[in-house]
């Protein structure tokens, strides 16, 4: 799927290799992200010079019990209430925050080069009408990301899944 996505950008078909952290290794001048859940897989690829930060994640909605069990590991401070105040159920808000932080991780990993926890990013804005949110990355990690610490995330809320996308230039 990733190779097909690159062919749309007129890139000669190349294999996407897997790195030591199980991350996709994109051909020179390309960047992208891959995600899957159940029988659904997605890939997003861009020219690195245009969109250095590319992340995508697709998740099935968490049920209320699972969301309650993992909420404290995923969410911090007011970010959960920020989404609930705009009409999302608690489990929907937890699912969306989880997915958005996964997209952010995928978008920034090529710059940071190591794993970091959910506590390293926080949802600071949410617009349910536009289906967008903004994540703030902690400064110690942002310094590896061309100095960028705010990342806009598009949210696609479907009946059984949530998909989040970060496709950023080097400035918000």
Could you give a quick summary of the protein structure above?
It is built from 5 helices and 9 strands.
Features:
single chain, 172 residues, alpha+beta, Ribosomal Protein L22, Chain A, five-stranded antiparallel β-sheet, 5 helices, 33% strand
Structure description:
It contains five helices and nine strands. By secondary structure, it is α+β, with helices and mostly antiparallel strands. The chain has one domain: Ribosomal Protein L22, Chain A, CATH 3.90.470.20. A hairpin with a 5-residue loop joins strand 1 (17-18) and strand 2 (24-25). Residues 4-8 have low confidence and may be disordered.
**Number of helices, where a helix is a run of at least 4 consecutive DSSP H or I residues:** 5
Strand order of the main beta sheet, please? 5-9-8-7-6
Uncertain segments: 4-8
CATH class: Alpha Beta
Overall outline = globular
Judged by helices, strands and strand pairing, the structural class is: alpha+beta
The figure for the number of domains is 1
What's the Cα radius of gyration? 16 Å
Strand content: 25-35%
DSSP strand count: 9
- Examine the secondary-structure arrangement and name the CATH architecture: Alpha-Beta Complex
Q: Could you state the oligomeric state of the chains shown? A: single chain
